Amino acid sequence: FILKNASSYMSQKPKLKDIKSVFAGLRPLAVETNDSKETKEVSRHHKITVSTSGLISILGGKWTTYRKIGEDAVNTAIHVGGLKEKKSTTQNLPIHGYDTNVDWNDDMHVYGSDIKKIIEIDSKNAYKSLSEKFFITKNQIIWAIKNEMAMTIEDVLARRTRCLFLDANETEKISLKVAEIMAEYLEKDKKWIKLQLTKFKQTLKNYKV
Fold first, then answer.
1. Quick one: pLDDT at residue 40?
2. Domain limits at 115?
3. pLDDT in tens, 44-65
4. Percent helix, strand, coil in the chain (nearest 5)?
5. Are 14 and 1 in contact (CB under 8 A)?
6. Which of 2, 105, 107, 164 is most buried, by the most CB atoms less than 10 A from its CB?
7. In contact, 200 and 154? CB cutoff 8 Å
8. Is the pLDDT confidence value at 5 over 80?
């Protein structure tokens, strides 16, 4: 289906062999139990509910509207709990990594203001990538462990970087090196490396055609 539709817009028709990685995401949809709508018809908007015990729950929503979700949740809490209203101080609050002087040509620009700290881990090899197809360095792996709570190969290659979503086969090629770097920093043995690789190979199957 995707290849067929892509062929209508691309000068060269993509083939199955051109697919580098595949994945599907799950979106939490807020729908009434008696609603017969198909998922494609269900609203992507969030809902704030209050139980009889006063528990406030956030249902549905999406990352792009998280500020609005937070505002609605806080306003509901003020109303339900009889809290004192305060003027919002987060409307223009920068999130972590905010930087006004971003070099978009820098391979690490996604880290924003944290770039300098990542480079300092090993300045000589800060831009030495483990792969020729996408950018991932030893510094990034160590940073993910120290500052982003990465504990497994999958954490690093799928959740802290986007390697697995860019090219599953290439990600598999560098997985051993990533495991070795992690093992050294986390003080793990060869048994841990072997177990990590075994688990990751199972995960990889879901991203290959």
1. 65
2. 109-207
3. 789 999 999 999 999 988 888 8
4. 50, 5, 45
5. no
6. 164
7. yes
8. yes
190 and 169 in contact (C-beta within 8 Å)?
Answer: no
DSSP state of 137: B
How far is residue 45 from each of residues 24, 31, 54, 56, 148, measured CA to CA in Å? 20, 10, 22, 17, 29
Contact partners, residue 66, CB within 8 Å, separation at least 6: none
Total count of residues recorded for the chain:
209
Q: What are phi and psi of 187, to 5 degrees?
A: 60, 50
Task: Let me know: does 134 contact 140? Beta carbons within 8 Å.
Answer: no
φ/ψ of residue 19, rounded to 5 = -75, 120
**Is residue 122 included in any domain, yes or no?**
yes
- Structural domains of the chain, count: 2
CATH number at residue 157: 1.10.8.870
151 Cβ partners below 8 Å, 6+ apart?
A: 145, 186
| DSSP reduced 3-state for 30 | coil
On whether residue 32 sits in a domain, the answer given is yes
Region 165-190: mean pLDDT is 98
The β-bridge relationship of strands 47-50 and 56-59 is antiparallel
Is residue 34 in a domain?
yes
On whether both 88 and 25 belong to a single domain, the answer is yes
Check pLDDT > 90 for residue 193.
yes
